[in-house]
Amino acid sequence: MSLLLFVFVPLTKAFDGIDGENVTIEASEVVEDDLYVGANKFVLNGTIKGDLIVASAETVINGTVEGDLLAVGQLIVINGTITDDARVGAMAIELGEGAVIGDDLIAAGYSLHGKSGSLVSQDLVFAGFQALLAGDVNEDVWVGVNSLQVNGRIGGNITAEVGEEESAPPVNPYQFMPDAPAMPVVPSGLTVDDAAEIGGDFNYRSHKSFSIPASAVEGDVDFSQETVSVDNVSEPSTGQAVWRHVRRFITLALIGALLVWQAPNFVTRLSEQLSEKPVPSLGWGALVYFAVPVLIIVLIVAAILLALFFGMLQFGNLSSAVIFVSLAVGFAFMVVFVLVLLYLTKIIVGYFVGHQILQRVSPTLANTPYWSLLLGLLLVVTVIAIPYLGGLVNWIIAIVGVGALWLLWRSNKVTAEKIA
Hints:
Elements: E1 11-12, E2 17-25, E3 30-31, E4 35-44, E5 47-48, E6 52-61, E7 64-65, E8 69-78, E9 81-82, E10 86-95, E11 100-101, E12 105-114, E13 119-120, E14 124-133, E15 136-137, E16 141-144, E17 147-150, E18 153-154, E19 158-161, E20 189-192, E21 197-198, E22 202-206, E23 221-225, H1 238-262, H2 264-276, H3 278-312, H4 318-361, H5 363-366, H6 369-384, H7 389-419
Parallel strand pairs: 1-3, 2-4, 3-5, 4-6, 5-7, 6-8, 7-9, 8-10, 9-11, 10-12, 11-13, 12-14, 13-15, 14-16, 14-17, 15-18, 16-19, 17-20, 18-21, 19-22, 22-23
Helix pairs in contact: 1-2, 1-4, 1-6, 2-4, 2-7, 3-4, 3-7, 4-6, 4-7
């Protein structure tokens, strides 16, 4: 590993990048330039004089980054000091009790936890599922989450869009994933502690208003209710509702039959993944389900930064080409992901359910994959059509189906590596 070149060197003049399974910059080490890291786990105990760009499943910053931090992964923990901006995306993001962000914090992920004693010196921007702000933010806060809790001190304004209990999943989907990072439990909607200090205005948008202690906000509290316009919209008749679900079944059956015809082994292997690894499929599916939007955002941000870099080098139209290609790739990836959620996941789970039933009722029919597919899709579409319950089942099917795809891809990758 290239890190071994620097283990015994207290002062490192410069190096552009390191990688490895577990990478640690010791407390005695000083990196005089920007640092690029790719690892399974990265720990910074020393000092980086420039920027830190890291992609790692787990990133822990105990030391000092005197430039910007750009990090993506599963867990990002900041206990030390980031002198400039921090731009991070992860399942769980944590600011420890001694964390200091010298400029702005821009983050996206499932959970953001700013502990008491942490400090964001300027603005905080977060998009995700939940945020617990128990530390200090010197200036403004912008958040878009389902669950927001404010316990600490906010020097400026808070602008928030929050959800409610009905829009939250019944359980934390990540609890089913092995080695999932610990995350706080934040109540759905908006919670403001009596000890919170908000120096500016509190503007929030939600389906309903929440109780905010008057002593916690020095400025004004402005609530905007989310409404759905029903002008010129009529409720569908029973026949129209039934026909809508029949069309869904026909569409899924045609796509599924084509898939079984052209790639029968693909469908059966996905069914086997669900049969052998139901809980890992749910856990990994939840990770991919929430991580893909974050990765798309990271791709767009990286494309913009790269284009600006090429622009500074005066590479002509290269910067525009980079942005165009990156946005096109991101858009195509997003479209494919949506199609997978809408169709392929239902086909996967439908085939699995139908095959499990026919194996017990009629093993002869189970040997014909089309019967398993049709029976399973009929059951899936019927359950999805049930009010309230159908939405939850549809969400679980999407996550489990994505998880099965992920596990199959990993299995094929490991097999290919062994053959190579």
